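Holo prediction — magnesium ion.
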Amino acid sequence: VASEEPRRRLRDDVVTEKRRTRSRATTSDELTIVEWIRTTREELGPADPDLLVGIGDDCAVLRGEPHQQLLAVDTVVESVHFAAGTRPEDVGHKALARNLSDIAAMGGVARYALVVISCPAEGSRDRIQGIFRGIDALARRWGVRVIGGDLSSSPGPLMVTITVTGRVEERALLRGDAVAGQRILVTGTLGGSRLGHHLSFTPRLAEGRILSTTAGVGAAIDLSDGIARDLGHITRSSRVGAVLDPRTIPLSAAARQQANEDGLTALHHALHDGEDYELLFTADRETARALSSTGLGRTRVTDIGEIVPGPGVWLLGPDGAKTPLEGGHDHFRG
Ligand SMILES: [Mg+2]
């Protein structure tokens, strides 16, 4: 049973939710949804007491006994999130793994999935079977049960939309729990995801679960859009700033390979590519030191910066000067 403290925090979150949603800078796709939900919510009247966290975090959090419930939904679209000709098994894996990554970012345990596949008629039987094989393999690995869904033909691209539920066994990790003075940490390595990682990654459910039970851990988010943008979600939700030390950012082999091919730096790829699906989180100094030396299970954890009072996300230069870190992956610009 969750202790009273995180519950109180979650209730406080309901109060601040509206304000936070208003102040949050968003990508163009999110903006439309945020505005739509805001309108709907105003039509519905006062806040729903069963809704502990609404829009503005990786999952919605609903009141539940004995466990709070998590809800998330996500779509992958051909030619946007995967290339035409991608193995259907990989499409299924990615569609579910992105959702599980959002459960991981809340420190939750994934439970159920509802799957909607909209598929062009040509060769649809084989494709749909392949997609389900990809979903099923990953679902079994994490004890997730597919409990329903829908199939539809599509005159356009192949699309897979999955809704997942999860439960909070300890406390939910929220974007709004970063505090000045905490360190910023990240799992794994970053950058160059489009060379293959974005289709094959393992959602960090085991790591998120450990974080949710670790005292001294603050805010968390999964890296879908790149540190530049996702760290901004944490700082805005928490009303703090962040300073990253670029020398400490863990670069993936793919980030270096991309850099060799396109002339950008590996650091640029690590900061901006997105689709790393690693966990970015904050922790007090002592916890950060412990986690970055032991890792989370077999997954490395790297200390990459510090939460500071002011607004903004900054990169520390070699001379100690700070430059603003801006930009990030935009789903509509690829
Ligand atoms: Mg997320």
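READOUT: The chain has a mean pLDDT of 88.
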